[in-house]
Amino acid sequence: MRIRRSKHNKTTNSSTLENQIKLEFHNTSDLQFKKFKVASLDITLAFLKDISDPIIIQKTIISPLLTVSDGDNSIQIEGLPDLLPIASIQKVTDYNSITEHVMDGCTIIIVRDKQTQNVYVVDTIKFIKRTPDEPVNEPTISGPRDGFIECIQDNKTLLRMHLKSKDLIFEKFTLGTDVSTYIYLVYLRGKTKETLIQEVRDRVSSVEVDYVKDGAILAQLLERNKFSVFPELTSTQTPTKVANALLEGRVSLLTDGSPTALIAPTTLNMLLQTPDDYHFKWIPASLIRMLTYITAFISVLLPATYISLVSFQHGLIPTSLAVSLSKTREGVPFPSVIEAFLMELTIEILREAGVRLPKPIGSTVSIVGAIVIGETAVSSGIVSPMMVMVISFTAICSFAIPNYQLSLALRTIRFFILFSAATLGIYGMLIAIFIVSTHLVKLRSFSVPYLEPFAPINIKEWKDGFIRLYFKAGAKEDNVNE
Amino acid sequence: MKRKHLMVLIPLLLLNLSACWDSDEIEDLGIIMAIGLDFLDEESARYSMTNQYVVPNNIPSSQTGGSVGTPYQNMTLNGDSFLSIIRQNSLESDRPPNYTHLKSMVVSEKLLRNEPINNIISFFLRDHEFRRTVPVFITRENVEDILSIEPTKEMFPAVQIKELTQNIDRSLNVQDNLDFGDLSKHISDRSSFVIPEVSINQNRIRLTGAAIISNLDHKIAGWLKPDEVGGLKWIKDTVQGGVVTIDEEHSGEEPVILEINKSNTKIEPVLKGDQLSINLSVNASLRLAEDWNVERNVFKPGWDKEIKKNSEAVVKESIEHVISLAQKEYGLDFLEFYTWVRIQHPDYWMKHEKEWNSKFSDVPVNVDVDFTLTGYGTQDIN
């Protein structure tokens, strides 16, 4: 919008164009212009030297043009692209996009003879990137070990490599009014419902912000339930997960400069799965799947159950356990509720400390936390050993949840249920569970029920729910849009 | 918006249904493992009640090693009603008694001679803290003494008493637990029943038969000796194991001991006109366990004939003895024949329900015992 171009006079003075570019970039020092003559043509190259690769510019633009002999007058302005050994050279007719191209690391070629002026754009971007290593927080046992990186071009490459299909579609969006960020909407045509794609398109294009910093922030901008703790979009850094999701008919969003890919719609079932589930034979894989579900339940309910039993429904504890519990709690100064909150607080602090610290010191924190604090807290009688066991087991269970965002959500829910249990015992716990499950049943991620396939019930889909049934060769999936 | 308000309101309404909810830390409770009831009949107090508290500090743990004292404390207090005695506990014990972990209840003979059992039990059935699974025992000893006997393998006398009846599959003489639930069922059925009896034998707790509670006055009518309990179990089809001993008296030879594998008793009331008779047939499979007649050759076909005949006679005799006790001596149907009559001949039962005790005494009972000997063990020394 910014470079004004006269509609009447196509042969705008090129120096004006150059000046306009200069003006647009506020005369920044890394904006470079190079002028030279080839035969009868005046050529000006414009590029940002920090993100354009000078070697590419030199090899693909300057040296081929300079080898053209001076006397060769057969070169026409329209024939210039044929001289350049580059796959992607585009003619720019809309001068408004020039700034955008320059920011992308492209080189603008302004060619001028006496009458006309043509503008071409050549991709000469210089990448600074790391290798697509295995993501730290999503380790896998047997699957592919590549991970997304900060360079969206490479992320797209990774996806193309994982899904060799002509149906794999990338749709580009540009978000942000101040700083623009490219978002790619990825889906498999034919596998994905058209309504879903349209909904994601609508939501993405309705985002109006100054800038989008990261995929995780985009996820929050796209969410509709602001007060829910459950993630509406799954974020992942492994191409395998995205590829699997695309094959299931979901869509994915890639954000430029972010290794986080988003998957929508998200269901609770999906958050509790790992790609590893599919790499093992179905019976052990199903057992692992069930274990994950049990783990999720334990990580939410165990402390609350313990509190309810110890301070409300004593009669439900087996007698011998009740007797030994009352012995171990003898002399503990706090009621079990306070004790539980103290311990939970300690664990959360330890966990945060472990995340923030550099790796070599991180292990020290866990040693100090687990052994020194835990052990001495028990032996000095501040907390009962049973409570330490309950809380640490809960923490371990929450580590075993495959998705970190879900694990965070469940942590929050755990505190809510713990608080309810502390006020009303098992009855309070049930009320809290009732509230949480009402919320979950009502929750939708991109028009898909969050608890699918459990609520609304769809037994057919349970083959990939609590269990993971065997694969059947020859089973053809229906096209969703038919 | 209205819907949203409603969503918040509905869970809040649930808070009204919380009933008694206040929290009580487990270490602040006086967990009661056993109660013993006794009759005093003194001027000051009519009853005495012993509560067996858990003393958590004295529970031996793996860390501290040897125990410091007994892990339980018996508190015997007197009063005119049970609830008032329980409340009196608060004068001496800082931890309020909690009965959700009650393991056994021991009632003295003296109390049951003076008070009908339905009066005694009514409070315990009514109160919400008492579970219907608490077993009741009767004793001719002092109740406090029974609850003070140091158990050797368990931690609490209460558990020891209760767990003794776990041996019903080991011995014919162990009468199965009678818990609060059964008791209330018998009382509302207006039937006679038996309560297992415990006593002290050389400073150990021992199961010694059972007491018969009459359905007329709900008091003790008589006692069953341990071997009579065996006969009762054959009749009530509660035999789960045990031994049958053929002594010299029955066989004229060295004693033979058989172990019961499986047993099934069928009771069939037969009505001819207005004349009721009962066919009782026992089918059981047994195994030769101990044989003092080493000359016996078990590899010869028909080796078991003699044993079978003798063992059947032994069991039949004990069954008939218990039936005659019930019919002739006490005139009380603690054998529970009435359930079969009620089920199979409801018309007859409706007519004679009121006079069942006297009818029962005259009902002819045909006892038929049929045993199968399934083996002679791993090895025979011949």
TrEMBL record, chain B:
GO terms for cellular component: membrane. InterPro entries: GerAC_N, Spore_GerAC-like, Spore_GerAC-like_C, Spore_GerAC_C_sf. The keyword Transmembrane helix does not apply. Residues 208-377 form the Spore germination GerAC-like C-terminal domain. Its main location: membrane. Gene3D superfamilies: Nutrient germinant receptor protein C, domain 1, Nutrient germinant receptor protein C, domain 3. Residues 1-21 form the signal peptide. Belongs to the GerABKC lipoprotein family. This is Uncharacterized protein. The lineage of its organism: Bacteria, Bacillati, Bacillota, Bacilli, Bacillales.
